[in-house]
Amino acid sequence: xxxxxxxxxxxxxxxxxxRGRIAEGxxxxxxGGELGGGGARVPARARAAILCPQTxxxxxxxxxxxxxxxxRVELGRVLVVHDxxxxxxxxVRSRTGGGLAGHNGLRSVKRELGSADFARVRVGVGRxxxxxxxxxxAYVLGRxxxxxxxxxxLIARSCDEVERLVREAALAN
Length: 173
What we know:
Helix 2 runs parallel beside helix 3 (104-113). The protein starts with a helix and ends with a helix. The radius of gyration is 16 Å and the shape is globular. The chain has one domain: Rossmann fold, CATH 3.40.50. The longest helix has 25 residues, at 148-172. The chain is α+β, with helices and mostly antiparallel strands. The strands form 2 sheets. The protein has a 3-stranded antiparallel β-sheet. It has a 3-stranded mixed β-sheet with strand order 4-6-5, covered by helices on one side. The chain is built from 5 helices and 6 strands; from the N terminus they run αβββαββαβαα. It has helices at 2-9, 61-71, 104-113, 133-141, 148-172; strands at residues 15-17, 20-32, 41-53, 79-84, 92-96, 119-124. Helix content is 36%, strand content 27%. Strand 2 and strand 3 (41-53) form a beta hairpin.
């Protein structure tokens, strides 16, 4: 998903930093229209960074925390995109804060950021038929079982939701 979003935003200069891969720069957004309360949509630019931690998933905070500090990003501007086995495959939801639902990657991010009050895009990947931790782990780390066109549609919906949240944040300024 990060690559698809970087392509949309024309961020192609990936660097190895913060125990991850990061692409950053100014991105073009359209604000206004329905989201802004009516009127024409106008072009706007916002600073954005996409970080892909290269740590183990349960240590993702060790990448996110230092990146947030170095880039001087307010907690309210951090957006984490993650898989969610408690949502059916294909469903995308967002929220700010809340519980971690046993997600070790989110637990690590919370620990390093000092709070769970960051925005999240939850990408539904479905749940295996078993609750055995080894089976669940293999399920989320394995390849999708759905057809490639359904996976591509899920990636597109996830990118759309990230862009919607970034637009809302731009309007708040």
